[in-house]
Amino acid sequence: MMIGVVGKSGSGKTYFSNLLNKNDEFTIIHVDEIVHEILKEDNFGKAFVTKYGIGFLEENRIDRKKLGQYLFSSSEIMDEYNEFIWPFIEEKIDAIIERSKKPIIIDWMQLPITKYFEMCDKKILVKAPLEIRMERIGKRDQISADYKEKREKFMLEYEDSIFDEVIVNDGTDLSGYAENIIRQILTIGFYAGSFDPFTNGHLEIIKKASCLFDKVIVGIGKNPDKKRHYQEEEMREAISYSLNRIGICAEVIIYSGYTFIEAQKRHASAFIRGLRDQTDYQYEEEIAAFNEEHSGIDTIYLRAGKVGNISSTLVRNLIEKGEDIKELVPEPVYQYMKKRSY
């Protein structure tokens, strides 16, 4: 899953990209930041000096303002420079995409003329009136009016028709737009429980859920009326490590209050619950009906298969009897449990 966010300088495309990523559900690629990093790197600097000489250097670093003044002097010079820097940019972007386990947001003014535009599942254009953009650029970049005008002439012009969403950023609150887009494009499963402790049965449910949803959120619910045997924060870390070591990208959180309220805040598409037998189903259906009535979010039931009989209660009972539970919980959870007495 890839979302492309496009807009002219000062339009607020980066601001909107960050709104989309409010809950850290994406790997976000701010290409302007990548370009700034490239300008500081030795391998690029050597190639740059070989092609353009040392006239643009200031204390052995490329002076961006000097370079900008040169580039904005003609379209031929700008095209030549873009062709020169393009491979460096693509190498960085390709590496991020390859290693990302999350859906991706790519925030880039030049996106429509790159190979990545067609890779985007959702294409968003953020627009703003010229006077608003100029004011934002002036405050942000502290550049002269003349420099702003030169830079404006070299910005791409966009056809609204090639985008799935066109958003006007005129100073109004855009968080509602961002939340609607997330609901449209991301399927998020919310798997809640006490996980006291987290077992291989729980792990199997998450494995199956990760094949069905773009993102899985594992929510450790805090219940003041229920005694915990293992601390929430330490169990959260053990669960996160257990999932990461087998390549499952899931967010593990601790929350309090009603589960359906937390799921709504996290834009959940469905609740995830595990079933072992008919008794489980009857109990879970009551909870599912309550959650759906109050949030509109339905529940998906998954089987844990051969490890479905492993529950937190079973693990704790076995520990009380002095029996080994190593095969019943993930290794990081087991190591955590060993460090403390039950």
Written account of the structure:
The chain is an alpha/beta fold. It folds into two domains: 182 residues, P-loop containing nucleotide triphosphate hydrolases (Rossmann fold, 3-Layer(aba) Sandwich), CATH 3.40.50.300; 153 residues, Rossmann fold. It is 48% helix and 18% strand. It has a five-stranded parallel sheet with strand order 2-5-1-6-7, with helices on both faces. Strands 10-9-8-11-12 form a five-stranded parallel sheet, with helices on both faces. The mean pLDDT is 92.
User: Helix and strand string, N-terminal first?
Assistant: EHEHHEEHHEEHHEHEHEHEHEHEHH
Strand arrangement, major sheet: 2-5-1-6-7
**For the CA atoms, what is the radius of gyration?**
26 Å
The parts where pLDDT drops under 50 for at least 5 residues are none
Nearest-integer average pLDDT: 92
The biggest beta sheet, please?
5 strands, parallel
Q: What is the rounded distance between the termini?
A: 43 Å
Tally of structural domains: 2
Instruction: Specify the CATH class of the largest domain.
Output: Alpha Beta
Could you name the CATH homologous superfamily of the largest domain? P-loop containing nucleotide triphosphate hydrolases
Broad structural category: alpha/beta
Shape: elongated
In percent, how helical is the residue content? Answer: 40-55%
**CATH architecture assignment name of the largest domain:** 3-Layer(aba) Sandwich
What is the CATH third-level topology name of the largest domain?
Rossmann fold
